[in-house]
Write the C-alpha cells for this entry.
Amino acid sequence: MSRVKHLGSRRELENYRDLLFVLVQKDIKVRYKSKILGYLWSIASPLAFACVYFFAFRIVMRVDVANYPLMLISGIFPWQWFANSVGSSPRLFLGNAPLIKKVKFPRIIIPLSMILNHMIHFILSLPVILLFVFIYGGAPTLSWIIGIPILLAVHLMMVYGISLVLSSLNLFLRDIERLVDVVMRFVFYFTPIIYPIELIPERFQAFIPLNPVAPLIISWRELFLFGTFNLAYTAISFAYALAFLALGYFVYRKLSWRFAEVV
C-alpha cells in the first residue's frame, strides 16, 4: 500500500512539473510571438532606460561616476526582473481564472511559472552585461561561478514570496494592483540602481539594508562591476527572501481555498 501511495505521489509531482514546464513554455512563446527581432526587443527596454539615465545624470547633470554605463546596466537588468515579476503579480490569478475554475492543480505553480519566465529572460540578458564588462576593461571572475547561481536562487525566492502575497491578496482587495505601481516607483529611487551607494550620505548608509531590494541589487552590481561576491548583503537578501517566502506561502494557504469563488 505504501509503495502504491509513493508511486502515486511521485506521478503527481511529475505531472505538476510537466504543467510548470508547459506554463513557462507558453509564457515564453507569448512574449516572443510575432516579433521578428525577438531577443533584441527583450533587452531593448532596460538598455533604453540606461541611455536615458546616462544622458540625464552623466551628460546633463555631470555626475562624476566611474564606468557609469556599466554601473547602470549591472543594476537595471536585475531590477527589471524584480520589477516585472512584482508588477505583474497582482493580475496573475485573475488572468488565469478559467484555468483555476476548470482544472484542479496547485495554484502556487502560476506565480512560479511567471517568475521562472522572467528569470530565463534575465539569464539571456547576461551576455549583454558581459559585453559591457569587457568594454570597460573588466572580465568575469571566479566569483561569478559562485555568485550568479546563489543570487539567482535568492532573487527567485524573494520575488516568488512577494508574488504569492500580492497575487493572493489582489483577488480580495483589487486596489493592490494600483498600490503596487505606486510603491514600485518609490522603491526604484530608494534603491541604488541609477546611483552608487557612495553618493548616499554617510549618515543614511546604515539604513540601506532596511530596503529589502537594495542589498540584492547591490550584490548583483558588485559582482558584475568589481567581480566580488558581497557575502554580507547576500546574507541579508537571503534572510529577506526566506521571510517573504514564508509570508507568501502563509497568505496563499489561508486564501487559496476561496480562489475559485472570487476569480
